[in-house]
Amino acid sequence: MSDEIYLDHAAATPLSDKVYAAMQPYFRDAFYNPSSPYAPAVQVRKEYETARVRLAARIGARPAEIIITAGATESINLALGDTGGHIVVSAIEHESVLAAAKKSECTLVPVSAEGRVSPGEVKKAIQPDTTLVSIALANGEIGTIQPLSDVAAVIREERARRLEDGNATPIYFHSDASQGAGLLDVHVARLGVDMLTLNAGKAYGPKQVGLLFVERSVRLNAQIVGGGQERGLRSGTENVAGTIGFATALELAERARKEESARLAGLRDYLENELVAAFPEAVVSGDHNHRLASHLHISFPGLDGERLVFLLENRGVLAATGSACAANKGTRSHVLETIGLAPEIADGSLRLSLGRLSSEENTKRAAKIIAEEVKNEYRRIG
Amino acid sequence: MSDEIYLDHAAATPLSDKVYAAMQPYFRDAFYNPSSPYAPAVQVRKEYETARVRLAARIGARPAEIIITAGATESINLALGDTGGHIVVSAIEHESVLAAAKKSECTLVPVSAEGRVSPGEVKKAIQPDTTLVSIALANGEIGTIQPLSDVAAVIREERARRLEDGNATPIYFHSDASQGAGLLDVHVARLGVDMLTLNAGKAYGPKQVGLLFVERSVRLNAQIVGGGQERGLRSGTENVAGTIGFATALELAERARKEESARLAGLRDYLENELVAAFPEAVVSGDHNHRLASHLHISFPGLDGERLVFLLENRGVLAATGSACAANKGTRSHVLETIGLAPEIADGSLRLSLGRLSSEENTKRAAKIIAEEVKNEYRRIG
Q1: Between residues 34 and 63 of chain B, which touch chain A (CB distance below 8 Å)?
Q2: Separation CA B97–CA B83 (nearest Å)
Q3: Which 3 state secondary structure label does DSSP give B193?
């Protein structure tokens, strides 16, 4: 690990030491089923409930509004699973949102060349039978941050209109904020969402742990039924260690958020400036005014991004061409297609995502290595 | 923990030290997303795939037939979720099976007073549109083991009949074997099942990890969609640490299975004999010829089982009245109702489940403490 420069924090983050320490007692000693009746199990339940309170506090929700899941994909499937109506999503949502939306009638809202959703486009896409709008807080590939509170206003207007029209169909606003925690404000009231997905594994917390915030007035159907845990919305023995780890991770991330965002933006801007200076033909995607501090999506026209990833790996720089799930399938990114990036540009893309493993020293080193490898590649292809 | 006598292994098992050691590297150092393209991530994927091979080998399946889930409840919901037809389940299935079955048209098959399912009753319940039969390998409350291979024979006959009748409706056999791993043979071909649920958290493995074996000819619809992981049947970043832990736990459990079953049966029989000798009016439920070696379900007519659990806890004995999820709701067990146990007997029940934390010494001590407390209670109520 020591010599490696990890620039793929958007795909996975290392577990924080403090989070690991907080979870450890629940792996072995406090192994009891939180539904068991005796004191050590009751104590485990109490600590689990406290973690839910801590999570709720971090996003401005009530504890009963938090559903713990096995990750963002499950949260998203629960939120979008069974709305009984038409769904509106942006065309650059994560695959899990697109796949879940496509189980219902759905409309994909286009985005600008910078990857921004326009509230006006969302408004146009809403039908009288639309029950859900789902827009990610920030795109995992190009880092563009969406104007959620403006979309929320559109939804409030639609609610007022329905009230006037006597249309009793509810309409909810969900956001997948997996890429936002620790970098952006994820307070549900300030975002204006009725449902919010968060992923512990993207925020230096345990993997396979997510949450879905479900505002108390939202009527949702369970996807996984059984013992009736998690308000009846998600059965299965409660994830004690995972929830405590998640709460700890979110607290740590929130506490350091402003400082860490500024630090990462500084490193990212350095990386961007160095590479753009060296390669004026490079294309940086995403919205420069509304972009995750961690993200740099840069394309080198004519180059092969996958080849570049392997060359960089040989030099100790771990980077991605796109999001891990999409890149693995060897298909072209739907995000880059949607923002209209020409194939010969899109194919030469790197997604560099910074995070806690990024330092001034290793970011400078990465900039140098990437520049060298890109230069070699351009030389090679002539 | 040292003085505690844990008699609730059916609710939760402590994580094995060896399992914990096997998982540890994947919590922090090897934190990479298994879908990422660079070598350390590819190595993580390789180790994940190896764990799937190991799991498959343990149950006699092909690796591609294993779907890793977040636990038995999710596995069960996936198996029963969307069959498009009528479902047959036993009336004493775990709540998650009953709840999932009730989403479809379903028939509950009665059981004997010992809690055994009769293959003849299953046969009677099967309709031309039945697509799934789900019977647990062993009941978590009273420990009765079901004649799965006889039920499998009924299903094979039904398939032959359908072939003759030109009825193209498929019929599958699923079993929830959560309570069986480490005590019973869980080889899928010998059991005769098309789908099998296992739970790592009940077998000294990590919590929130389960699997669903899905025989390759079974057509199943995904419940959680997205990145297309787990054969497209269960999207979400793969659970690397959990799967490796599960494989290790199942290997350890299988290796020690015969010896451990014999050991536990010996301790359980001692406990049973002591208590029945002291209280001839006590009622032991379950099938004495087909019962999990770990389980003793014993009822003291006229006593209050919940009170008894608290009294025992004061003496350091951790036991349950029934399964953790049901007991927690204060409702009477549907299992005991189904086997026809009178309420005044059922209400005085203890479920004592032995396991790796049980020793000859602490089982003897437990027998003595339970006998004393039951005697006191009978004295108190006159």
Answers
A1: 35-41
A2: 14
A3: coil
Is B294 an 8 Å CB contact of chain A? no
The answer to whether the Cβ–Cβ distance between A313 and B39 falls below 8 Å is yes
Interface check for A331 against chain B (CB to CB < 8 A): the answer is no
Contacts (Cβ under 8 Å, ≥6 apart) of B2: none
Least trusted range by pLDDT, from A73-87, B239-253, B284-298: A73-87
Give me chain B's average pLDDT, please. Answer: 95
Rounded distance between C-alpha atoms, residue B181 and residue B193, angstroms: 15
Structure tokens at B254: 């299988």
For residue A95, the chain B residues in CB contact (below 8 A) are 226-228, 235
Nearest CA in chain B to A98: B226
pTM of the model: 0.95
Q: Of A286, A126, A223, A142, which Cα lies nearest the Cα of A134?
A: A126
What is the interface pTM, i.e. ipTM, of the complex? 0.93
Residue where the block lists tokens 């409706």? B169
**B226 touching A (Cβ < 8 Å):** yes
Domain with CATH 3.90.1150.10 in chain A: 5-14+257-369
Q: Does B1 touch chain A (CB under 8 A)?
A: yes
Q: Return the DSSP state at A181.
A: B
- How many residues are present in chain B? 382
Q: What span, in angstroms and rounded, lies between the C-alpha atoms of A77 and A97?
A: 7
Top-confidence residue, B332 or A278: A278
Nearest to A137, CA basis, from A55, A219, A195, A204:
A195
B5-14+257-381: CATH class: alpha beta
Of A31, A35, A309, the CB nearest to B15: A31
| CATH H-level, domain A5-14+257-369: superfamily | Aspartate Aminotransferase, domain 1 (3.90.1150.10)
Mean pLDDT by 10 residues, chain A (382 residues): 87 96 93 94 97 98 97 96 91 96 96 98 98 98 98 98 97 97 96 98 96 95 88 91 98 96 98 98 98 98 95 97 59 91 94 98 98 98 89
Q: How many beta carbons lie within 10 A of that of residue B46, not counting itself?
A: 11
Q: What is the pLDDT of residues B253-272, one digit of tens each?
A: 999 999 999 999 999 999 99
Other CB atoms within a 10 A radius of the CB of residue B168 amount to: 7
Q: Which residues of A touch B100 (CB under 8 A)?
A: 225-226
Cβ within 8 Å, pair A71-B236: yes
B25 inside 8 A of chain A by CB: no
A321–B241 C-beta distance less than 8 A: no
Q: If pLDDT is split at 50, 70 and 90, which confidence band does B328 have?
A: low
Residue type, B199: N
* From the candidate CATH numbers 1.20.1740.10, 3.40.640.10, 3.40.50.2000, 1.20.1530.20, the one assigned to the domain spanning B17-255: 3.40.640.10
Q: Which residue type, as a one-letter code, is found at position B295?
A: H
Residue B379 has phi, psi (to 5 degrees) of -65, -45
Separation in Å, CA of B32 to nearest CA in chain A: 6
The answer to whether the CB of A353 falls within 8 A of the CB of A44 is: no
Q: Which of A8, A33, A307 to mutate to test the interface with B (most CBs of B within 10 A)?
A: A33
A-facing residues of B in 87-146 (CB < 8 A) are 94-97, 99-100, 103
pLDDT of the residue at A106 = 97
Residues of A that are catalytic: 325
Listed in order, the ranges of chain B carrying CATH 3.40.640.10 are 17-255
8 Å CB contact of A74 and B70: yes
CB-CB neighbours of A342 under 10 Å? 12
**Catalytic positions of B, please?**
325
Cα separation, A222 vs A230, whole angstroms: 10
